[in-house]
Amino acid sequence: MTASLKRKDLVGLLYVLPWLIGFLVFKLYPFVMSLVYSFCDYSMLKPPRFVGLYNFIYMFTKDELFPKALFNTLKYVIITVPLKISFALFVAIILNMKLSGINLFRTVYYLPSIFGGSVAISILWRFLFMKEGIVNKFLSLFGIEGINWLGDPKIAIFSVSFLAVWQFGSSMVLFLARLKEIPSELYEAALVDGASRLKMFAKITLPMISPIMFFNLVMQTINAFQEFTGPYIITGGGPVNSTYLLSMLIYDNAFKYFRMGYAAALSWVQFVIILIFTAFIFRSSTYWTYYEYDEGRF
Amino acid sequence: MIKSKRLIATLVLAFFTMSLILAFSLAGSDKVKAASNKVTLRFMWWGGEARHKATLSAIQAYMKKYPNVRINAEYGGIEGYMQKLITQLVGRTAPDIIQIDVTWIGELSAQGDFFADLKTFREVNLKPFEEKFLRDWCYSNGKLIGLPTGVNASAIHYNKDFFKKFGIPENKTWTWEDILTTAEKIHKKDKNYYLLNFDATVCYYLLKTYVLQKKGGKWINDDYTMGFDRKTLIEVFTYIDKLFKVGAIQPFSESAPFQGKPEQNPKWLKGELGMLWNWTSTFAANKANVPSLSMTMIPIMKNAKSTAVTVRPSQLLAVNKLSKNAKEAAKFINWFLNDKQAALILKDVRGVPASSTARDALEKANALDPVITQITSEALKRAAPPENALSQNQELEKIATDVIQQLAYNQLTPVQAADKLMALYKQKLNEIKRLQSR
């Protein structure tokens, strides 16, 4: 290597330095340290003490709340992800039609995602869904009486899931962008061949948007596994822990009980679970995603 | 090409250097200020609207009186306050003057030495404070961690209109039996009304209080064992179960969205719930929402071994041990708690003042709500000794409130609830013992 090339490297390095420092300090260091702490007792105020695998053994054998939180989290993911994605697709298809004032609707439907899982929206949600809340008042107009959205342990998990489903905007925008790219010749050809609308959707639309479907599935699954704000504020994990998610167990241990080591161990288990699910989706995607430019796939 | 890149690189470098120099010079100018007797203090507290307003105007008054002192207020709600404080203490960036809760002292002192010993400061006058009160609540390892802002007692807040509607005399001395029978009558008369606005946390207070009155001693002993037996526990759970069965407590399935914040329950605000078990320090805030509010003592059983009436400092004001202006901070705390002018600005936003000079000033000005003064002095007469840190442990509270919820949802019988609580407590106490043994 010549000296000038080395200097060029240095300049390049200088350019990426801000990002590099940010990555090292705020991403890599916490990542590594949390793994270290997961093998320790650590209360933040005192130096950590190494305890080997104790935290993990405690989690799987003694912690009453861990299996419950894990089960709730899986339930939450299974409810929200398919609902959110299908709803996003449904709305995207409608918004893809050529109607007057459609741009306004596109904006309006994206709004919930901007408000997102903020605290204010979660509090609003609580008032909407309480026993004497607006949702029940509205339903009673149609003769449906008093569904206990937040007080019934069997229903509460669905009620908090709706908040996530409601924030379908970002998935929808991606779907919409892709839908617009599908060549209209395909539909025209199908129309000439006498295909039904449903058939066109199954044979043209779905395959064409499958890469976006795959991306949305991965992102939404990862997000849903880490959900915290909405359920924490709307139900606080209740009633009877029926909406107590892994993220809340981690939060409580870290910041209420000051058991940082145990919280780190829990986070790592959560991380591995997400990793497994993501890997599974990646693997399975070879069978159901379609890329125009590459017949052989990957 | 390379030349322009080098130019950009030089520019970037220059920018970084400039910002560094700027940062240092700013830090330096702070030092200069300190040298010229200018002091900046940071004061952090939590509270509601009324407390924020009063505290801010007190700070204004102090800065007017001592123009060389600047006080930066850092305030908000209680939610997340302790987490923020711990992070600041660990990161050595905590404010100079810190409002803390007495229940944190045990945990914090076990972990490290964070606060200055206030009895070593000439600036602080301890005479207006009752010595026993300080000894019981404010010391840790012989050090005076903080000074009490007010005297706070657990009490029953009740709605006078509710009492009138059902013909309940206001000057009644309540027993546990009375509560049950009265509540049953009320709910039979009108099934929209419930006597008690209790959530799981309040039921946990009830549980502890009942057991302590029956058995005396401690909820959790210092040697990590339970201070109660199975029989007593079954008795209390049976009592709580009855409260649910007769409609004394609004079903949890209805009040679920307001677990942990019963004072926000719309039914309570509408006046359809009669009693709320809360602190005297929150009375003013609660009264703002329910104007016909008054207070009475909590039930005490006959031949009680302990009254289990908690009277404790509302909060403590402590000085950060790392503070560069500890003396000035102590001086401010002394003014804030003892000075007449401060007392008249702050009134009872932190409960009845613990300092006698402040209290006298308020009494002379008729600025105290007579209900608060009366309940506070009554509670003081019957105050139980302070709880140890273990009895206030958050993990144990979580277990108990979970079991209580399961009881409320009929998932457990009183006997099952007692057995489950004891089994989980035993395991958790072993774990806490392991964590604390070093």
What features would you describe in this structure?
Chain A: Its main location: membrane. Chain A: It comes from Caldicellulosiruptor owensensis (strain ATCC 700167 / DSM 13100 / OL). Chain A: Residues 70-281 form the ABC transmembrane type-1 domain. Chain A: It is a multi-pass membrane protein. Chain A: It is found in: Cell membrane. Chain A is mostly helical and 298 residues long. Chain A has one domain: Orthogonal Bundle (MetI-like fold), CATH 1.10.3720. Chain A has helices at 3-37, 54-61, 65-95, 102-115, 119-129, 134-140, 156-166, 169-181, 184-192, 197-225, 229-234, 246-256, 260-288; strands at residues 40-41, 49-50. Chain A has a two-stranded antiparallel sheet with strand order 1-2. In chain A, α3 (65-95) packs antiparallel against α10 (197-225) and α12 (246-256) packs antiparallel against α13 (260-288). The longest helix of chain A has 35 residues, at 3-37. The two termini of chain A are 34 Å apart. The N and C termini of chain B lie far apart (63 Å). In chain B, a hairpin with a 2-residue loop joins β4 (139-140) and β5 (143-144). In chain B, α14 packs across α15 (356-364). Chain B has 438 residues and is an alpha+beta fold. Chain B folds into two domains: 39-150 and 313-381, Periplasmic binding protein-like II (D-Maltodextrin-Binding Protein, domain 2, 3-Layer(aba) Sandwich); 153-310 and 386-437, D-Maltodextrin-Binding Protein, domain 2, CATH 3.40.190.10. Chain B has helices at residues 2-35, 49-65, 81-90, 102-111, 131-137, 160-165, 176-189, 200-215, 230-245, 252-255, 266-269, 283-289, 326-338, 340-346, 356-364, 370-381, 394-408, 414-436; strands at 39-46, 69-76, 97-100, 139-140, 143-144, 146-148, 150-159, 194-196, 273-279, 293-296, 311-313, 316-319, 352-353. In chain B, the strands form three sheets. In chain B, strands 7, 8, 9, 10, 11 and 13 form a six-stranded mixed sheet that branches. In chain B, strands 2-1-3-12-6 form a five-stranded mixed sheet. A two-stranded antiparallel sheet of chain B has the order 4-5. The interface between A and B is large, with 39 and 39 residues.
